Amino acid sequence: MGGEELDYIHQAFEKNWIAPLGDNVNGFEDDLKNYVGTKSAGAFTSGTASIHLALILLGVETGDEVLCQSFTFSASANPITYQGATPVFIDSELDTWNMDPKLLEQAIIERKDKLPKAIIVVHLYGMPANMDKINEIGEKYGIPIIEDAAEALGSHINKKNCGSFGKLNILSFNGNKIITTSGGGALLSDDEELIKKARFLATQARDDAPHYQHSHIGYNYRMSNIVAGIGRGQMKVIDTRVSQRRAVHDRYFESLGKTWLEGEIQNSKPKIFNLSPTGIYFMKEPEGYFSNRWLTTIIVNPDETGGITREDLRLALEKENIEARPLWKPMHAQPVFANAPAYINGVSDWLFEYGLCLPSGSNMSEEDQERVIGVIKETIA
Questions:
Q1: HSE-up (13 A, CA, CB side) for residue 188
Q2: If residue 149 lies in a helix (H) or strand (E), which one and from where to where?
Q3: Residue 126 region, left (φ>0) first, then alpha (ψ -120 to 50), else beta?
Q4: Which end of the chain is more exposed for a tag (fewer CB within 10 A), N or C?
Q5: Which parts of 174-219 fold into alpha helices (H)?
Q6: What is the pTM of this model?
Q7: Domains (ranges, CATH) in the chain?
Q8: CB 331 within 8 A of CB 74
Q9: CB under 8 Å to 68, separation ≥6 — which residues?
């Protein structure tokens, strides 16, 4: 917490306005649209709820298909199934670890008789996806983009903020995000009518009548005035949080080999170009890209570590009561989506096999970080 959150919470109590809607909700929505650079924003109960609303707004129904990044958390894909639609998973490119534009276009071309209703692209670990090419493809085939920027508030491409590239854009304020409201999310767009409709649907779709009347199925997705107050306080420190996360990343990079992951895909498996002195590689920012470095992630090459794998490192850290996690297991490899169509080039499977997320909290002390670094160095020594 930054310290100002309680001021907004106290205001809500003083006005006796605790439930959904209120000054804090309105103010938080204004803060978000002004920071990201869209014309409108709606604050809701979660990023998942926001994706669900986006799919409803785009008319996704039973029998439709939605193209979705495979290398992501399940919340990106689950709302597709809420609508009775089928996710079609698209693998990642090596440069950003996000949706591969070539595979995306291939999937669309093979569906020219009935085009998918939407494309869900994710900025994973704070690294922006290749939005220029993905938007170009979306426009070429008339398929709207849902931009999942849940992990990327504060990231940008050539100064254009993540959360402003798609027709509908998603943010999350879950407890582990760059800023948090404990739980919560947002839907942003330049189409103000879409956000107005999202607010209507999220408030149980109550018609404008003196009695309770409903002409549409609605949802209980509106953010409370208390939660929004936390968000308003958090927006005061967003740039500081981004700087802190990037500083954590830079300390890891300087201490663990200073080697960017660069390579190409050969026979459905990445081939690394640059040899690392430690066998550890970091995700590089492409030119013009700025990542909030929400999480610091590494690739561990056992061919260069004397056989030490990312799982060996994870267990060594766990033994010292330090939590680290593998990178996301791709959606196309998840049991729940075993029957979903997928366009695979091997990148996300490779990242899951060799990748590790390191402790990256913005409140992490240098002493704690040196402890993590020390365990890693000792394990691969």
A1: 29
A2: none
A3: left
A4: C
A5: 192-202
A6: 0.95
A7: 5-237 (3.40.640.10), 240-380 (3.90.1150.10)
A8: yes
A9: 76, 77, 80, 87, 88, 89, 90, 119, 120, 331
